[in-house]
């Protein structure tokens, strides 16, 4: 499988106290462990089982994903802007890999 | 003789195909979860704690043409202050191979308890959301999604 590519959309600027929506997407097959290949063997499960978002090191939002989550999983949530800083997003794969990306937010 | 071998192998092929056909009828294609399994999962998490209907806006389509990608949005009424906020929202489906779909974990930093993702649905089923507040109270919501083409096994 090609390396998962994370994509996030965070507004570059926000006012203090403003509620901003963060949208994330990562390319991943999310193999459910329910499918069979041509020879009838079960294709082993390999999904991203956890998504986390932190701002300046403080946890903001997490999602536990199960095999019922679609391929190329999408996740959106909100954040109440307080101060300027950096988001860190982490996706945890069943195979032990972590995929991460960051995004800066400036609070005026 | 050549034709004899060929005809025998064709007969074998036919037998194999027949056996495979019977096997596929006898073996259930997918063991799907049901409402009871969802209840058991909720019991595992919260025991017999009472749930109140309401506070949750569960946004799913009434009819999903493609079960592979079904949008789901959850929005829970809450001030999301340091002392009164939504901790988690568990989402279940009662017609997928596994009852769990997703668990959202919020913090007061979120400002509002609202999140969206996309899920796979194998068949028409109920989606159940259980929200746990910071004071331990539970709220629930349920919605049915009619699925035209299932999203499991292809």
Briefly say what this structure is.
The complex is a heterodimer of chains A (108) and B (154). With 108 residues, chain A is mainly beta.
What would your notes on this structure say?
The complex is a heterodimer of chains A (108) and B (154). With 108 residues, chain A is mainly beta. Chain A has one domain (6-33, 45-96): Immunoglobulin-like (Sandwich). Chain A contains no helices and eight strands. Chain A has strands at 6-9, 13-14, 19-26, 48-55, 58-65, 74-80, 85-93, 98-107. Chain A is elongated, with a radius of gyration of 16 Å. The mean pLDDT of chain A is 95. The two termini of chain B are 43 Å apart. Chain B has two domains: 1-30; 35-149, Sandwich (Immunoglobulin-like). By secondary structure, chain B is α+β, with helices and mostly antiparallel strands. Helix content of chain B is 24%, strand content 40%. Chain B has two helices and nine strands. In chain B, strands 1, 3, 5, 6, 8 and 9 form a six-stranded mixed beta sheet that branches. In chain B, a hairpin with a 4-residue loop joins strand 8 and strand 9. Classes of the chains: A mainly beta (108), B alpha+beta (154). The interface between A and B is medium-sized, with 28 and 33 residues.
């Amino acid at each position: 499988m090609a390396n998962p590519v994370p994509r996030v959309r965070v507004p570059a600027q926000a006012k203090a106290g403003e509620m901003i929506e963060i949208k994330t997407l990562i390319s991943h097959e999310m193999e459910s462990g329910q499918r069979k290949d041509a020879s009838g063997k079960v294709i082993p499960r390999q999904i991203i089982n956890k998504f986390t978002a932190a701002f300046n090191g403080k946890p903001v939002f997490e999602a536990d994903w199960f095999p019922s989550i679609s391929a190329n999983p999408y996740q959106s949530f909100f954040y109440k802007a307080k101060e300027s800083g950096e988001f860190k997003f982490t996706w945890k794969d069943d195979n032990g890999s972590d995929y991460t990306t960051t995004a800066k937010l400036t609070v005026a | 003789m050549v034709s004899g071998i060929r005809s025998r192998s064709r007969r074998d092929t036919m037998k194999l195909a027949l056996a495979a056909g019977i096997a596929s009828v006898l073996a259930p294609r997918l063991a799907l979860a049901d409402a009871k399994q969802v209840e058991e999962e909720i019991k595992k998490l919260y025991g017999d704690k009472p749930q109140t209907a309401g506070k949750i806006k569960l946004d799913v389509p009434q009819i999903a043409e493609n079960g592979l990608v079904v949008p789901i949005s959850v929005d829970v009424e809450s001030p999301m202050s340091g002392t009164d906020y939504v901790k988690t929202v568990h989402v279940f489906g009662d017609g997928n191979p596994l009852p769990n779909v997703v668990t959202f974990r919020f913090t007061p930093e979120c400002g509002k308890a609202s999140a969206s993702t996309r899920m796979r649905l194998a068949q028409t089923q109920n989606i159940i959301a259980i929200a746990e507040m910071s004071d331990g109270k539970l709220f629930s919501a349920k919605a049915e999604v009619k699925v035209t083409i299932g999203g499991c096994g292809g």
